[in-house]
Amino acid sequence: MLNRTDKSSQFRRTNQSIEGASRKDIISDQKSRKELGVPQEEERKMLGSKESEKRSQIKIGSHQQSRKTLRGQDEEEKGAKVIGEGRLDEYGEEEEDIVCLRFPHLSFCPYNYQSQLKETLFIEIQPGIYLCGFAMGLWTKYLLQKAVTNVLNLTSMEYTKRTKYFKYLNIDVHNTSDEDIKKHFRISNRFIRETLLQKGKVLIHCRDGLNIGPCFILAYLINEIKMPLKLGIEMLQNLIPQLDIAVHFYKQLEQYDLEKLALLQIKTKDS
């Protein structure tokens, strides 16, 4: 029989032996970790800092690359905006002399719809503002020779856009009595104004160049130059004897002219 003192001493010896064994295990584990190359806390920190440096270098490199890409895109866009007849040197495409008036966006065309590309209605209304019919608006080489940079397309027809050479604004307008063209004047006026401010030239073309296109030119003259509608009509008739503006469009132009005149009078009173 063991007394209480013997039991406690035996218990202490057992604990010491367990603690000694655990210390040995820990030391042997540390040795094995060193032998196997398992990183300690400091090594882990050093490796972590190196990894973060690598990641930051990768991020910086990718950021610089993206900036270079964006800079290159900007330079390409600036190059595409070069204005003048020099852009004709870039045009190396073979262009057909025949245009399809029925399927201008397709590669084939029935004989009945074929039309010879020739200089017909192409008039400079104001410096930098041209007017033409549908077929002339497809003649890329001719437009480049005239240094056209922007195209206001009012044809309501699908055709191949030469976006490499021209900036387009497409507005669908149909010659019907219920068509509201006045709602488009704000955006078309801005398009023409910005083209001229950038020293460019704008082409306005509709199907025949006698009705819808002249309406948008008159709207620009009324708004930007403060030209009265009557004077604008007389100027266009001198340039285009066959001018044929529809009655329903002419009424909208009259209303637009009165609105701009009233606004001008209010501004004059205030000043």
TrEMBL record:
Q: Which keywords does UniProt give here?
A: Hydrolase, Protein phosphatase
Q: Which domain of life is it from?
A: Eukaryota
Q: Name one GO molecular function term.
A: phosphoprotein phosphatase activity
Cited CDD domains: DSP
Keyword match Transport? no
Q: Which residues form the signal peptide?
A: none
InterPro entries, per database record: Dual-sp_phosphatase_cat-dom (IPR000340), Dual_spec_Phospatases (IPR052103), TYR_PHOSPHATASE_DUAL_dom (IPR020422)
Basic and acidic residues bias spans: 21-56
SMART domains linked to this entry: DSPc
Region (Disordered): which ranges?
1-86
Q: Does the keyword Ribosomal protein apply?
A: no
Give the transmembrane ranges: none
Domain Tyrosine-protein phosphatase: residue ranges: 121-259
- Record family assignment: Belongs to the protein-tyrosine phosphatase family. Non-receptor class dual specificity subfamily.
Q: What is this protein called?
A: Tyrosine-protein phosphatase domain-containing protein
Q: What is the lineage of its organism?
A: Eukaryota, Sar, Alveolata, Ciliophora, Intramacronucleata
